Amino acid sequence: MSIHPSKSVFISGSSRGIGRACALCLAGHGYDIVLHGKSPSQALEQTIADVKAMGVNVRALSFDVCDREAARQALLKDIEENGMYWGIVANAGLSRDVTFAGMEPQAWDSVLKTNLDGFYNVVQPLVMPMVHTRRGGRIVVIASISGVMGNRGQVNYSAAKAGLIGAAKALALELASRKITVNAVAPGLIETDMVDESVTERALPFIPMKRVGKPEEVAATVGFLISDDAAYITRSVIEIDGGLHG
Ligand code: NDP
C-alpha cells in the first residue's frame, strides 16, 4: 500500500477501541492523524503518545458528537489552521441495549443522537471543504452488522446503524464525481469496552469463526478503504463479522 506522509485522516471516537486501532493502522501507513474523543481523557493521551511514537504528525480534538455547533466549530477551526483532511472515519458511537418493549426514551435518543446525528454533525461541515481540495478524498462510516441484519435488544442501535448505511450509500452518489469515495464498514462482535462478556458468551455459538473480532481486524479494512488502492470502491458495505451474517 502506498505511503502518504502529507495526507491527514480525522477519526471520530479514536481515544479507544476500533477508532484507536484505525489511528494506529493509518499512522503505520504514513498518514498524519487527527484523533478525537468526547472529552480529554487518559485514554486519548495514551493514544496520542502511541501514534506520535510511530513518527507521524498527530493532534487531538475533543467534543461531543451530539453537540452540532461544538462539532462544527472544532472541525472548521482545525481545518482552517491545518488544512483539510484526506480522509474521515466516522466511528464515534455507543449502544444502549434493551428490548424494545422496555426501551426508555433516553436509550432511543442517546443511540440515535450519537451514532446517526453524530455522523451528520461531523461529516456535513467537512464535505464542501473536501470537495474544494479538488484532490478527492475518503469517507468511511463505521456501521454495524446489527444495521444490516437487525439484532434482538438493539432496535435503537440497528435503526441508527441501518440509517448510517443508507446515508453512506446516498452520500457516495453525491460525491462520486468529485473522486470522493464513501463506504460503510459493518463489524460484528469486536473486543472493545462496548462489548461485555455476557454478550460475547451468548453470541459465540452463532459466529462461524467461533471468536470475537479484534479492533485491528476492522482497522485493516478501514486502512485499505482510505488508501489510493481503494479508489474504485464506493457505496459499499464491508462486513467484518467472522461469518455471522454471511
Ligand atoms: P468504544 O466504547 O471502545 O469507543 C467509543 C469511542 O467513541 C470512544 O473514543 C468515545 O470517546 C467515542 N464516543 C462515544 N460517544 C461519544 C460522543 N457522544 N461524542 C464524542 N465521542 C464519543 O467503542 P468501539 O470501539 O467498540 O466502537 C466504535 C464504533 O464501532 C462505534 O460506532 C460502534 O457502534 C461500532 N461497532 C462496534 C462493535 C463492537 O462489537 N465493539 C461492533 C459493530 C460496530 P471517549 O473515550 O471520549 O468516551
What kind of sheet is the major sheet? 7 strands, parallel
How large a portion of the residues is in β-strands, by DSSP E? 15-25%
Major sheet: arrangement of strands: 3-2-1-4-5-6-7
Helix content: 40-55%
Structural class: alpha/beta
Q: Indicate the mean pLDDT.
A: 97
**Which residues form runs of ≥5 with pLDDT under 50?**
none
Short description:
This protein is α/β, with parallel strands linked by helices and 246 residues long. The chain has helices at residues 17-28, 42-52, 68-82, 105-133, 145-149, 155-175, 197-203, 215-226, and strands at residues 8-11, 32-37, 58-62, 87-90, 137-142, 180-187, 237-240.
Structural write-up:
This protein is α/β, with parallel strands linked by helices. It contains eight helices and seven strands. It has helices spanning about 15-30, 40-50, 70-80, 105-135, 145-150, 155-175, 195-205, 215-225; strands spanning about 10, 30-35, 60, 85-90, 135-140, 180-185, 235-240. The protein has a seven-stranded parallel beta sheet with strand order 3-2-1-4-5-6-7, with helices on both faces. Strand 4 (about 85-90), helix 4 (about 105-135) and strand 5 (about 135-140) form a beta-alpha-beta unit. Helix 1 crosses helix 8, helix 3 (about 70-80) runs parallel beside helix 4 and helix 4 (about 105-135) runs parallel beside helix 6. The model has no long low-confidence stretch (mean pLDDT about 95). NADPH dihydro-nicotinamide-adenine-dinucleotide phosphate (NDP) binds near residues 43, 142, 144 and 192.
